[in-house]
Amino acid sequence: MENMxxxxxxxxxxxxxxxxxxxxxxxxxxxDHMSFLEMLDVLNEKLISQKxxxxxFEHDCREGICGTCSLVINGYPHGPMQQTTACQLHMxxxxxxxxxxxxxxxxxxxxxxxxxxxxxxxxxxIIQAGGYISIDxxxxxxxxxxxxxxxxxxxxxxxxTCIGCGACVAACPNASAMLFLGAKVSHLAQVxxxxxxxxxxxxxxxxxxDVEGFGQCSNxxxxxxxxxxxISVEHIARLNRQYIASTIGSEKVAN
Amino acid sequence: MTSWFAKFLTSxxxxxxxxxxxGLFLISFLLVHLLGNLQLILAQDQGQTFNEYAYFMTHxxxxxxxxxxxxxxxxxxxxxxxxxxxxxxxxxxxQRYAVKVDRTAGASKSSIYMGSLGTVILIFIVIHMAxxxxxxxxxxxxxxxxxxxxxxxxYTLVAAVYQNIGxxxxxxxxxxxxxxxxxxxxxxxxxxxxxxxxxxxxxxxAVGYVYSVxxxxxxxxxxxxxxxxxx
Lengths: 255, 231
Hints:
heterodimer; A: alpha+beta; Fumarate Reductase Iron-sulfur Protein, Chain B, domain 2; 2 domains; 9 helices; 7 strands; 13% strand; B: mainly alpha; two-stranded antiparallel ribbon; 3% strand
């Protein structure tokens, strides 16, 4: 369809502190081959030509791999299609004449920067707390020198597909970041390189998660349903196992 | 309590472990409670079996000890649950979503309403205990003599309450809330403890669903049958 007409209800907020509100924008001439972000580009071009403030939204690769786009569309993080980022969502999934409500991620730990842009530094600080492997620089080791079973490598890779977009937090009724945290901990806990620091890593990362003010997981699995990479809550179970075993069973006391 | 242990219990995973372990204890209590209470309708002896059972449960030192643990676990589960609900509400931020959806992957929709379901159940427990437990403790029950031993006639007290259709409906509705709470709670408790396993999780879920239907159904049958028998 060449000429979709839409009514967009978009959250506008000048910055972290000013009060925001929804503003309605009618938009004509939307092509159903457009991605959702291209549709917003069209709206912004229109706003700029009218000397109005364009809508601030985040985007980078527009290929579904960078985790930058962060829109709650009609209540669904990244829109109603599952295992899709907002940039890979196309307008053919919407009806002509539809009212589309666009909101930012809502989390105390993700303060709004402007309009639909939120600050996700909290995720970076969780990674800084332990989501890495300490290695000396030098020659890259031969991959085959580190034996790992194929199934386990695949499980680790399932967790590693997390793009850190924060849709899990946005979707969770408790605004918990357990799926992100679970994916990061589970990824490194399953590969030989990550096992070395696993016990301190899990304690430090869980602590940082709590410091940031995310909520607590009650196994609702809305995160898995909205995760653009379809990461399973089984990684949260592995995180819980790791955390319980590390705090209760190991001699390590991090932080 | 050493600091590492306090840190564990106050971490977001530790808080959920407390919910999980107290929840599992309460789940096992439900079965014991049901098996005992079924004597209200199974033994057709004007309540002698039930009253003697109630006497045993209130006088055996081991069971008395366990009952204090039970009261504590109910309180911990309820208070921790309310604190978590409050904290999780705060974690969303001041502005809530304008459009609300409830899509989940592996869990049922009742997972979203555990706090509300739990609050209703807590109110039910307060009323339920005020109605029977407190009356017995205050000595508002008649005495009945079996084999020259005076025993509190809890059966007559229960039977009197279940003559009131309003209370029968109240108990049946409360059991529906418990069923929905268990529907998520049973399997969620194991996930929190880290038990998510290709071999065991399907079994846990199946047992959980059967348990969360059969146990409340058994409880609900007691007031209904006692009401019908007295008509």
